[in-house]
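HUMAN: Now follow token order:
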Amino acid sequence: MNEPGLQFWFDFGSTYSYLSATRIEDVARAASVAVSWEPFLLGPIFKEQGWNDSPFNVYPAKGRYMWRDLERQCSKYGIPFAKPSRFPRNGLLAARVACLAKASSEPWLPDFTRAVFRANFAEDREIGDTAIVRSILDSLDLSGEDLIERAGAPENKQLLRERTRRAAELGIFGAPSFVVREELFWGDDRLKEALLWSNPRAHEDAGTSQRREGKLIVNERS
């Protein structure tokens, strides 16, 4: 895998983060790019922008488009989807668990992340419920009770606050966001571009291919 790789910043309440979390490892592996999973909270960042709710709720037309678009994209990629009965859901506890895993470089972070997103956007489960998060951890053969207790420790709560501040420092204003050498890409539809940027060889090859295609079109038209 190439370094420095790609940072994947996600929030558990983010619809399009669900798309990225489900497919990022496969597409990153194909591009020979290492992925760093970066949990954070969008809520504090939204508040700084003057929003007390998801912009998809603040702007109903945007919300209607998003749900239909998400349905289309999930169908396109074969990702299970069921519109949650409540949106957005409270992802604080799940984010604290993810932050704990991140701080300890736990290998189960991607699996936990995908399971939480699936519970929210495919199974319509309350991911803010302690029992639900515990059951997800237990299903991964982890000690849910112990991890939830550790995730609630003051030092881990502070780590999550620091991660959210770091996201803001990087210019992140939504999720998913991808960062490559502090170059910011926002949205699931920018995942491919972020991967190309993180792999200079792939980026160069893509540019060469595009130039060749351009010449071919010119030659065909001449």
Q: What stands out?
A: The first strand starts at residue 2 and ends at 10. Strands lie at 2-10, 33-39, 177-180, 183-186. The longest helix spans residues 200-221.
